[in-house]
Amino acid sequence: MILKFYLHISKDEQKKRLQERLADPTKQWKFSNYDLPERKHWDEYMTAYEDALNKTTTDWAPWHLIPSNHKWYRDLVVSRIIVKAMEKMDLHYPKLDRDVKSIVIK
């Protein structure tokens, strides 16, 4: 089973996060000098992502597009998809080849 997630944030949310990185010394390590010039290509990136997602989604491994402006919501949606997928797998603990009660640890 393959689960693919595209975590999408809006352009406004990206701007907010970049500003927070610059303002907070503990987050400045996340900021790259390339962030601002690359941001000018937002629409081109969105078109490229859409094209890539459409060309690489399949019935057996679709992309899950996750709204990610709010991290709590992103985490909730992703975890629900993972749990649902695991439930479909009908997982069980492996059966032992002998009775556990007969094992003596010295």
- Kindly report the CATH topology: Rossmann fold
Class derived from helix and strand content: mainly alpha
| Whole-angstrom Rg | 22 Å
Q: State the name of the first-level CATH class.
A: Alpha Beta
The topology string of helices and strands comes to EHHHEH
Summarize model confidence as the mean pLDDT. 94
Distance between the termini: 42 Å
Task: Strand order, main sheet: write it out.
Answer: 1-2
Report the total helices: 4
> What is the tally of beta strands?
2
Percent in helix: 40-55%
Proportion of residues in extended strands: 5-15%
Low-confidence stretches: none
Assign an overall shape: elongated
| CATH level 4 superfamily | P-loop containing nucleotide triphosphate hydrolases
Question: What is the subunit arrangement here?
Answer: single chain
CATH architecture: 3-Layer(aba) Sandwich
Overall number of domains: 1
Task: Please outline the major beta sheet.
Answer: 2 strands, parallel
Question: What are its keywords?
Answer:
elongated; mainly alpha; Rossmann fold; 106 residues; two-stranded parallel sheet
Q: Can you describe this structure?
A:
- It contains 4 helices and 2 strands, in the order βαααβα.
- It is mainly alpha-helical.
- The chain is elongated and about 65 Å long.
- It has one domain: Rossmann fold (3-Layer(aba) Sandwich), CATH 3.40.50.300.
- It starts with a strand and ends in an 18-residue tail after the last helix.
- Helix content is 48%, strand content 9%.
- The protein has a two-stranded parallel ribbon.
